Recover the amino acids of this structure.
């Protein structure tokens, strides 16, 4: 355990030393779950995916739901995600599914050279973030982008009910 | 203002209509599933069966479920559990564990006969096999017709699977767009078959649920093309009731010429 930590710290130091010149292209996404003035609050189920021009799911990026106990029965409430391909996905999936997140900013980062982004063909895509809350509402926020990443870019959008600020950062 | 006597006779008519289903004056027949779309893990759905013109309010009569059949995604029958017949609706539960689409149908074929006995009108309705005992051999002014009725709805666990039309008799739905994959503002193609073949020029009526909460009946009327298809653009999310019927002389019961066939189905249209 101790040696692993040392090794990891060493690797991180080495990466930092390389500076900005050697990093791989990546896509990162910041998703804000807003604080809501409601009497009964449950953390939302959230799906994040990349949608192709035909609106099918080109890549699943994240799925947060109540993983403890059998609560997958509520996944169809993420209606867009479910219809576009969530219903074909067998959960849980390593590296994709996880527990619901608390109020605040959540950062997701994906390496362009690794799955699932490495499988994307050049073209126009949209990042979709959909959130649905028990006894609450549903909202989806979309940000379009072009693949592969040609220039550094940052685009943002804002939800009005179930989602706060959503920002997409592209690094070539 | 309604005259009291008018209200009273209207009630009597409504009662008679409930007692004699499958006639052209019958109240609307429908199946109402508690949900149409379930997660991959499946679960239970409850289905209500009623005959009432108000969609989807149980305010006229229960629909008998003696001729209920539920077909699973693998084509095998699924047993309805906890069947019950109440005053205003019948109901049953279905345990759906297998992924795919289930077809829930109440379908029957019956014979209706009218004749005169000593100058008085007589009528009989029953199974084709009981015709000989139900209708006197020497009945005067005998008028017989076959009624073929099919009332359906669909429920999907996980991703939708193909809905097969395999009765080959009467009116059937052979959806192009899956009935559990309908969305507001989108256009869906639905194909109808009569006796297993595409039904051209068939009139199809579609009405949104919640008739109680609006003044206009709001029916949408379609006519099938040469391929038996209609294209429906759903105005809003919600439950919809669809009906098609025909009268011809293609009865399948020996000794009967006239036929009246009907098809009705309940669909759930989802939000974008």
């Amino acid at each position: 355990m101790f040696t692993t930590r040392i090794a990891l710290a060493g690797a991180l130091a080495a990466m930092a030393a390389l500076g900005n010149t050697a990093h791989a292209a990546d896509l990162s996404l910041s998703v804000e779950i807003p604080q809501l003035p409601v009497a009964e609050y449950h953390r939302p189920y959230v799906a994040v995916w990349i949608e192709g021009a035909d609106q099918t799911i080109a890549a699943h990026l994240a799925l947060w739901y109540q993983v403890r106990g059998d609560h997958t029965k509520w996944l169809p409430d993420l209606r867009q995600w479910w219809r576009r391909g969530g219903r074909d996905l067998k959960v849980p999936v390593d590296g994709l599914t996880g527990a619901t997140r608390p109020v605040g900013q959540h950062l997701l980062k994906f390496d362009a050279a690794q799955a699932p982004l490495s499988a994307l063909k050049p073209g126009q895509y949209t990042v979709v973030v959909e959130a649905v809350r028990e006894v609450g509402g549903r909202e989806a926020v979309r940000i379009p982008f072009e693949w592969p990443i040609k220039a550094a870019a940052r685009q943002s959008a804002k939800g009005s009910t179930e989602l706060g600020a959503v920002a997409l950062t592209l690094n070539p | 203002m309604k005259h009291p006597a008018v209200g009273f006779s209207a009630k009597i008519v409504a009662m008679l209509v409930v007692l004699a289903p499958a006639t052209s004056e019958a109240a609307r027949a429908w199946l109402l599933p508690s949900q149409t779309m379930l997660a991959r893990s499946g679960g239970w759905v409850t289905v209500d069966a009623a005959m009432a013109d108000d969609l989807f309010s149980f305010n006229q009569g229960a629909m008998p479920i003696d001729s209920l059949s539920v077909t699973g995604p693998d084509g095998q029958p699924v047993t309805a559990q906890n069947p019950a017949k109440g005053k205003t609706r019948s109901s049953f539960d279905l345990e759906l564990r297998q992924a795919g689409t289930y077809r829930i149908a109440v379908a029957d074929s019956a014979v209706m006969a009218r004749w005169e006995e000593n100058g008085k009108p007589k009528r009989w309705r029953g199974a084709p096999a009981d015709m000989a005992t139900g209708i006197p051999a020497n009945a005067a002014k005998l008028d017989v017709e076959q009624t073929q009725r099919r009332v359906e709805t669909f429920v999907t666990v996980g991703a939708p699977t193909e809905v097969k039309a395999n009765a080959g008799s009467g009116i059937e739905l052979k959806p192009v767009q899956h009935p559990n994959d309908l969305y507001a503002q989108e256009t869906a193609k639905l194909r109808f078959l009569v006796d297993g073949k595409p039904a051209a020029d068939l009139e199809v009526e579609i009405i949104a649920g919640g008739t109680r909460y609006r003044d206009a009946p709001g029916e949408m009327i379609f006519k099938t093309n040469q391929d038996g298809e209609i294209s429906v653009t759903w105005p809003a999310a919600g439950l919809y009731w669809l009906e098609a019927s025909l009268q011809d002389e293609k009865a399948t019961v020996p000794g009967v010429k006239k036929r009246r066939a009907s098809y009705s189905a309940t669909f759930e249209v989802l939000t974008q």
About this structure: Chain B touches chain A at residues 37-41, 43, 158-159, 181, 183, 270-272 (CB under 8 Å). Confidence is low (pLDDT under 50) at residues 1-24 of chain B. The helical segments of chain B are 4-19, 131-134. Chain B has one domain: 14-19+26-269.
